[in-house]
Amino acid sequence: MPKERKRPADPAAAASTMTAAEAVVATLIAHGLDTVYALPGVQNDLLFEALFQVSNRLRTVHTRHEQGAAYMALGAALATGKPQAYAVVPGPGLLNSAAALLTAYSMNAPVLALIGQIPDADIGRGLGHLHEIRDQSGIIKRLVDHSELIRKPEQAARAAALAMRAMRSGRPGPAVLECAIDVWGKSAPVILQDPLPIPAKTIDNDTIRKAAKRLGAAKRPMIICGGGAQDCSEEVTALSAMLQAPVLGYRRGRGVLDSRDPLSVTLPLGRDLWGEADVVLAVGTRLLIQLRQWGVDRELAIIRIDADPEEYGRLHRPAVALTGDAKPILQRLLAELPAHNPKRPSRKAEMQERQSAWRKRLEKISPQIAFLDAIRSELPEQGIFVDEVTQIGFAARLAFPVYKPRTFLSPGYQDNLGWGFATALGAQHARPDVPVVAISGDGGFMFTASEMATAMRHRIPLVTIVFNDGAFGNVRRTQQEHYANRLIGSDLANPDFVAFAKSFGAEGVRAKSPEELRQGLRRALAHRDGPTLIEVPVGAMPSPWEFIQMPKVRGR
Ligand SMILES: Cc1ncc(C[n+]2csc(CCOP(=O)(O)OP(=O)(O)O)c2C)c(N)n1
Ligand SMILES: [Mg+2]
């Protein structure tokens, strides 16, 4: 058994005797964290003991499954833009959280995982300890860019500070700290570690000028935003106005330019504009859809802003590459651009016309859009919409108006079914000041439905809308349309979702039409004392895929 704690954590003291767990916890507090999403177990008992000591400064929010804890940390990170943490036991605990950790990696989200370990001396020996997994550290190294195994208390504070810095430097992303069952409780004189400075990339004047000249000379400039642009709304808005450049955001880039601006576009019109553009400024996006689906040719010059220079060599060499944090780079570009940019006539009328032409074509998916209109009419501007891999979600990416950054949370390229409910719980927990609405299908919701208990236990006022078609509808439609109706593994037996919610003590409502959904949402959003589930029974919906997987418009 681990030794008893000698002294309670005291993060104010510069050096004192404390356990590894106390040192980690004090370091997290010093970095501004206020919550750890967690599921306990014996390897982490001493970590939880340290969390207990500081529970007035660092809340422990426990979930019913490790994926819930990790998705909640992810949702909190996406909604706030700030680092968040979760803690789980090794082996099955780690693996249960792994889909969320993978998603955090894919989304460059600063999520710190605290993972237990078997007794330190036996790591790697294959003795069959509780929750032992072969080469846990090796598995973790494949999942994230930064990880460390804490082997003694003296190492703990610095390890935590390094992890916190790693999550925010270069390409941001998750980090993992492992610590053995018998090390969490070991004590030593510990010097607490202040936050380490985040190294800033120097921005090269010549490259900024080169980019500004290209953009200034462009006849049909365009801006494409990914998740890396979420903190650059002001700058992108100003650049777009100066250049009269449309701004495309699809999943992670939505909300950077307000959807009410006629220059703000989603995929279908974005593809037309990509076909016409002579210069594209890509901010914090992999450009996978553009370069792989829509094509590229010599007439198009691409300027990329990315935290990770490895991006440039992957698919297509950019004409100009600006590496680093997008915000200061865009600010420099904004300062330089007026010297090279002509006064440009407004494209407002043209863009409004093109937007409405596409809205007409999107009427093909109007059942989905009618539900989205109902949600938008009730969700305030700063309210957060959490997307899922479901029919309403696919339509939302194309047609849901988004007014502010970080108010449209979409899972990026993992597109992992089942992320939504628990991620939204984390978003709502971390942003109690704004309403959060999660949408999901009956399939996706059931991945983490047990976290309704977490929503009740921690009184999280999330509103969840479950669109119930009794199927993995997207799969079923594919089987109908492309496999001659050979249906396999796509029908679902469901609970009564309203009764399910009520059985936890949550509010449960059924809405059978967009209008009933609107009314139900209005009531639900007024109820801030706990969760609400709104079930919407639906039939099969028209396919959105012709608007998402669109053919080439450039190149061979
Ligand atoms: C982790 C994961 N597993 C499987 C899939 C494949 N998949 C994509 S959509 C879908 C069905 C979604 O069903 P539901 O949530 O009910 O939404 P619907 O399409 O019926 O609206 C499945 C299984 C996925 N995207 N992610
Ligand atoms: Mg379904």
Question: Summed up, what is this model?
Answer:
Strand 2, helix 2 and strand 3 form a beta-alpha-beta unit. This protein has 556 residues and is α/β, with parallel strands linked by helices. Helix content is 38%, strand content 17%.
Descriptive account of the structure:
The chain has 556 residues and is of the alpha/beta class. Helix content is 38%, strand content 17%. The chain is built from 21 helices and 20 strands. Strands 3-2-4-5-7-6 form a 6-stranded parallel beta sheet, with helices on both faces. It has a 6-stranded parallel beta sheet with strand order 11-10-9-12-13-14. α3 packs across α16. Bound molecules: thiamine diphosphate and magnesium ion. Magnesium ion (MG) binds next to α17.
Q: Topology, pairings included?
A:
Elements lengths: L14 E5 H11 L4 E4 L6 H9 L5 E4 L3 H15 L3 E5 L3 H5 L1 H9 L4 E7 L18 H8 L2 E5 L2 H14 L8 E6 L6 E5 L13 H13 L3 E5 L7 H11 L3 E3 L14 E2 L1 H10 L2 E5 L4 H7 L6 E6 L13 E4 L2 H11 L11 H14 L4 H13 L5 E3 L4 H9 L8 E2 L10 H11 L5 E6 H4 L6 H6 L5 E6 L4 H10 L14 H7 L3 E4 L3 H13 L5 E6 L19
Parallel strand pairs: 2-3, 2-4, 4-5, 5-7, 6-7, 9-10, 9-12, 10-11, 12-13, 13-14, 15-16, 15-17, 17-18, 18-20, 19-20
Antiparallel strand pairs: 1-8
Helix pairs in contact: 1-2, 1-7, 3-5, 3-16, 8-12, 9-12, 14-15, 14-21
Bound molecules: thiamine diphosphate (TPP) and magnesium ion (MG).
The site of magnesium ion has 7 residues, from α17.
What overall form do the CA principal axes indicate?
A: globular
What percent of residues are in strands? 15-25%
Side by side, the strands of the main sheet go: 3-2-4-5-7-6
- Record field, number of beta strands: 20
What's the end-to-end separation, in Å? Answer: 66 Å
Structural class: alpha/beta
Report the total helices. 21
Low-confidence stretches: 1-6
> What profile does the largest beta sheet have?
6 strands, parallel
Mean pLDDT: 96
Radius of gyration: 24 Å
The percent of residues in helical segments reads 25-40%
Q: Give a list of the ligands.
A: thiamine diphosphate, magnesium ion
